[in-house]
TrEMBL record:
<dbReference type="GO" id="GO:0004325">
    <property type="term" value="F:ferrochelatase activity"/>
</dbReference>
<feature type="binding site">
    <location>
        <position position="181"/>
    </location>
    <ligand>
        <name>Fe(2+)</name>
    </ligand>
</feature>
<keyword id="KW-0408">Iron</keyword>
<feature type="binding site">
    <location>
        <position position="57"/>
    </location>
    <ligand>
        <name>Fe-coproporphyrin III</name>
    </ligand>
</feature>
<keyword id="KW-0963">Cytoplasm</keyword>
<dbReference type="InterPro" id="IPR033659">
    <property type="entry name" value="Ferrochelatase_N"/>
</dbReference>
<comment type="pathway">
    <text>Porphyrin-containing compound metabolism; protoheme biosynthesis.</text>
</comment>
<feature type="binding site">
    <location>
        <position position="271"/>
    </location>
    <ligand>
        <name>Fe(2+)</name>
    </ligand>
</feature>
<protein>
    <recommendedName>
        <fullName>Coproporphyrin III ferrochelatase</fullName>
        <ecNumber>4.99.1.9</ecNumber>
    </recommendedName>
</protein>
<keyword id="KW-0456">Lyase</keyword>
<dbReference type="GO" id="GO:0005737">
    <property type="term" value="C:cytoplasm"/>
</dbReference>
<comment type="similarity">
    <text>Belongs to the ferrochelatase family.</text>
</comment>
<keyword id="KW-0627">Porphyrin biosynthesis</keyword>
<comment type="function">
    <text>Involved in coproporphyrin-dependent heme b biosynthesis. Catalyzes the insertion of ferrous iron into coproporphyrin III to form Fe-coproporphyrin III.</text>
</comment>
<dbReference type="InterPro" id="IPR001015">
    <property type="entry name" value="Ferrochelatase"/>
</dbReference>
<dbReference type="GO" id="GO:0046872">
    <property type="term" value="F:metal ion binding"/>
</dbReference>
<dbReference type="Pfam" id="PF00762">
    <property type="entry name" value="Ferrochelatase"/>
</dbReference>
Length: 356
């Protein structure tokens, strides 16, 4: 029997977006930082990260691959829902996609956001984007957001396997550096319904991955949560330490190697291929510290199946049923609906790169 989809008649994949060619880079960065007073000269400096890769972010292609994988996964179980795709900062723009959904007769949809953790930039800002788009479109569909999925077995399990693969390339006794996008400390302080959610969730996910690896191997190893992609004025405190500074500490401590595990990201977009595969890799090489980077979930079967199952789970919950809500770690499953005061915006938002 195929799973029931009501009350939903569509699924929306919502992501950050990225430039597809060199001429897109500056307009894209202007979209990202609109209203923050950042001069074009500074944006052009940031744009060099994109120009180094041909002026094309990988994030849109990765979303195209995810859409294909989701469609195939839905079809495997007879989940007959159309899947749409919209971005916050580049084509296909969210407003255009929601206008298409309304024209197609979609009345209620569930949204998959390519951000797994609670924070303003990773959750509430996307909800604000949905609300803003809906105000512009007559007959816009009602859209419900899936719960945060960072501690779902499908997300954690994907990282367990990729971390094990990375460690297999390194000397015995190598450390693990779990990496995520840095955010202002003030944003973390108000993330989640009770504050500190961004860091707490990352620590819990890291602990779950570590525990499973130790269970498999019987080995304990050094683990740390570190950050990348800091931006904004230097006087504003952001979460630390930076991954490059952490690599220097590991080398000074005589660690034989390090697996860099980007648990804050669902795919290999710019923060991963530039900040980790380029900058951090150069730092490790300079330090003569063996480093291997674990893969992000991308279109891993565990991850794709998880997203499909979360759609089915949320539909069941909206029908008044009591579906199973799988999770690992100590925090329990996330909430379906965010409180009105959850993850408030900072008074002076700071620049960000791709999705947190």
């Amino acid at each position: 029997m195929s799973p029931a989809a009501p009350p939903y008649d569509a699924v929306l994949l919502l992501s950050f977006g990225g430039p597809e060619k060199p001429d897109d880079v500056l307009p894209f960065l202007q979209n990202v930082t609109r209203g923050r007073g950042i001069p074009d000269e500074r944006l052009k400096e940031v744009g060099e990260h994109y120009y180094a890769f041909g002026g094309r972010s990988p994030i849109n292609d990765q979303n195209r691959e995810l859409l294909k994988a989701l469609r195939e996964s839905f079809d495997e179980i007879g989940l007959d829902l159309p899947i749409y795709w919209g971005n916050r900062n580049w084509a296909p723009y969210l407003t255009d996609t929601m206008r298409e959904m309304a024209a197609d007769g979609v009345r209620r949809a569930v949204v998959i956001v390519t951000s797994a953790y609670p924070s303003y930039s990773g959750c509430r800002q996307y909800r604000e984007n949905l609300e803003d788009a809906a105000r512009e479109i007559p007959g816009a569909p009602r859209i419900d957001k899936l719960r945060h999925y960072a501690n779902h077995p499908g997300f954690v399990g994907s990282f367990v396997e990729s971390t094990a693969e990375a460690l297999s390339k390194l000397p015995d006794g190598s450390a693990i550096a779990y990496v995520t996008h840095s955010i202002p400390t003030a944003m973390n302080a108000t993330s989640g319904p009770d504050g500190n959610g961004y860091v707490d969730w990352h620590l819990d996910v890291a602990a779950s991955i570590t525990a499973e690896l130790e269970r498999r191997t019987g080995q304990t190893r050094r683990t740390d949560l570190v950050y990348c992609s800091r931006s904004g004025p230097p006087q504003v405190p952001w979460l630390e330490p930076d991954v490059n500074e952490h690599l220097e500490v590991l080398a000074a401590d005589g660690v034989p190697g390090v697996a860099v595990v980007p648990i804050g990201f669902v795919s290999d977009h710019m923060e991963v291929i530039y900040d980790l595969d380029t900058e951090a890799a150069k730092t490790a090489e300079k330090l003569r510290l063996p480093m291997a980077r674990a893969a992000t979930p991308g279109t891993d079967e565990k991850f794709v199946t998880m997203l499909r199952d979360l759609v089915v789970e949320r539909a069941a919950a909206e029908r008044g049923e009591q579906p199973a809500r799988p999770c690992v770690g100590k925090l329990g499953p996330a909430w379906d609906d965010c409180r009105h005061d959850c993850c408030p915006p900072l008074r002076r938002p700071t620049p960000q790169k791709e999705a947190v």
